[in-house]
Amino acid sequence: MTNVERVRRKARQKLAEQRGIVRSLLKTREQIVGSLFVRYAECGKKDCACSRGKRHGPYYILSTGPGAQGGSAYLDSIQAGRAHRLVRRNREYRNGLRQLRRVNADLVALLRRYRNEMANRGRSMLGLSAARANRKKSLV
Ligand SMILES: [Zn+2]
Q1: Among the listed residues 64, 59, 56, the one whose alpha carbon sits nearest the alpha carbon of residue 79
Q2: What pLDDT is recorded for position 131?
Q3: If residue 67 lies in a helix (H) or strand (E), which one and from where to where?
Q4: Are 139 and 113 in contact (CB under 8 A)?
């Protein structure tokens, strides 16, 4: 297999990978950018059970970070269950984006390699020797 064929084959594999990632990202529905915390608290009253270690709670707090939509909110246990799934979905989405960025970078590197191979062929069509920089196999 020639270098060019290898590059073409790898680029096609990366394209399929990219397509799969984009597809699964587009399937992702409702999500929340934020974190869910569980807190227990002491109220400070002397005779309360919480002063003997049995603290109040759990309190579920959704923190949605800085920005216009940001802030924190107390949730009941049903909301907390939903929020847990929404937060996790967003984490998966971010992982997908990270994966996509890697695949895109691989594709760009492969296409550069392809261009170098083709540029060498172009030079040889004119009877010129291959460009020195492109002789190195270390690209990509
Ligand atoms: Zn208390």
Answers
A1: 59
A2: 73
A3: none
A4: yes
Q: Are the CB atoms for 45 and 51 separated by under 8 Å? A: yes
Q: H-type helices in the chain, by residue range?
A: 3-27, 77-125, 132-135
Q: Which tokens sit at 28?
A: 């992702």
Could you give the CA distance from residue 123 to residue 105 in angstroms, rounded to a whole number?
A: 27
C-alpha of residue 135 to centroid of ligand 1, in Å: 75
The strand pairing partners of 36, in sequence order, are 62
Residues whose Cβ atom is located within 5 A of ion ligand 1? 43, 48, 50
Q: Global pTM?
A: 0.77
CA–centroid distance, 60 to ligand 1, in Å, is 17
In angstroms, what is the span from residue 58 Cα to ligand 1's centroid? 13
pLDDT (tens digit per residue) in 82-133 = 999 999 999 999 999 999 999 999 999 999 999 999 999 999 999 998 776 5
- The mean pLDDT of 57-67, rounded to a whole number, is 90
High-pLDDT (> 90) share of the chain, %: 82
Amino acid 137 reads: K
